[in-house]
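Re-running the complex after MR caught last week's input typo. The corrected sequence lines follow. Everything else is unchanged.
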Amino acid sequence: MMVVIWGVVKFIVLLVLLSVYVLFMTWFDRKVIARMQNRVGPKLIGFHGLWQPLADTIKSFWKEDSIPRGSYRFLFWLAPIIFTTCAFAISFVVPFAPPIKIAGGVLHFSVVNINVAVLFVFAFLGLASFGVLFAGIASGGSKYPYIGSQREGAQMISYEIILALTLLNPILMSQSLNFETIVAAQTHHLWYAFYQPVAFVCYLIAMFAVSAKVPFDLPEAESEICCGYFVEYSGMKMGLFPFAQYIVLLVMSAIMVLMFLGGWTGPFWSGGFIAGFIWYWVKVAFFVFLFTWAWGTLPRYRYDQLMDIGWKILLPISVLNIFWTGFALSAHLPFF
Amino acid sequence: MLEWLTAGVTVFITVILFAVILGLALYLSPKRDYFVKSQVYECGIFPVAEISNFNIRFFIIAIIFTLFDIEAVFLYPWAVDFKGLGMLGVIEMFLFLFLVFVGWIYAYKKGALEWQ
Amino acid sequence: MTQIVFFILSLGTIIGALGTILCKNAYYSAMWMISAFVSLAGLFVMLNAPFVAMLQIIVYAGAIAILILFVMMLMDRRVLNNKQRFNPQYFWGIILGVGLFSDLAVLAFKFRINISNAGKSLTLHGSNTKMVGDVLFKHYLFPFEIIAIILLIALIGAIVLTKKDEEEAR
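Corrected-run output:
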């Protein structure tokens, strides 16, 4: 029973931290992109507009919440809830700090510490795509949400395959599905990014596609289909979609760091909780910043190009990479 | 076991929490609805006709995805039990992956992955 | 404790399954189906089979339900809205369902299924994924390779069928 109570406590802490992170990220995105485009960005409320996201959130509670005629009302309500819940559920299995040994056990910094964590992530990523599809379907026959949700659904499932196949390589090398064990396995080796450069790059591309961010933000391409699947949403319901997207983005970056870049280990000054914590979050913050950076600089791909990249280039490469890893491990090649 | 109970409880709490947030927003928000406002928004222009078409390509992608997904999850027990299975597992899996790859080559040659 | 969780999950599965067949709107049916799959995954977890549970969500809820949803999106929305709840042959379906249910009930009474065992995991403990791997790649080696061939055939079949449709449409 203690495990459950501890889990709920950790969940509440995680909830607060993730909400603060999302609020901060919206400000950060706007500010960085404004700077990249020689603008000022949010400025008025608080220090350099730092309270702007908070004001936006509070305001969105009082926004009129209009549901289009002819929409499936229950699905319309359910879609943002499904999407946000699944995004949160992914973050439950990801450790956000190195585990510490305390008297009588180990304190894990993930809400649940299960030994099929990687599969849990895939399962809930798959479920998250239903939130998007339902949002498009329920919008009362509106055209842009329909097109956007089809795009996002197909994009998410296409790139989930790439994620599953690329993450298989670190799992093959560490023979575990638990993130903490995978990180521990990397302390004996070099980081897996050095063994698996191909898988690393494939995951990096797939990460952008799964979280539907520039250059792969086809589902919500503003210039083509307004806002994609959440055009018809307003107020708080609309706010939940970007909220969940920012969480997916963070979790994808965290998984990248855990699987390929050694989690909380560093080339120097490692060992100990504080060192591990700082290493881990420096790496994660780099990838989170990479998303913003790409948003500010890269143009958008066409949809056929997106599908071509996924199915014609990344898929065969990642299958061949599994061949290579299996061969290298079973033949005991040097360094493996 | 208890970890899974925690997962279930926390997922449940999350659902309830977001439902409560949306309910609160519904309670606080003004309701001034009229005919034009409750029309579908799309891009702000008066909506013309309902959508009725869906590109068959999405469906083909979904079928191919289903098959590759099933193949991908079969790889996981092998990866976790790599040491225990040894050389036999590797040969078996190479045969399996080879068949997957043949399937991919067929799809490629047939143009099923083409997006016109 | 385990009993309560078991009954909640099985109730979720049954309600989901009933909702799937009783909902008039096909999209709501899809939603109920997904909820049934997820509760079923919970039951697998209770049997100490987390790998199978995750497989259940990834393959059934993640892949097959999306396929079904895409099929529904292929159809015209107005056609789906004006559907009857049951088709004319529902009588035979009810007969079949009642027959199967009574069969299960008779079996349950005959073998005196102990309700207090509900939700107790009777399987082996240990890493489920590893055990699945052991069984799959050592004992069921040949069926596993057959699966690969079946999947290949399914892929070829799907491509041939959809390609033919496309060429006709042109």
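None of the earlier attempt is carried over here. Helices of chain C lie at 2-22, 26-46, 50-74, 77-81, 90-110, 128-139, 141-169. Chain C touches chain A at residues 25, 27-28, 31, 34, 38, 41, 50-51, 54-55, 57-58, 61-63, 65-66, 69-70, 73, 77, 127-129 (CB under 8 Å).
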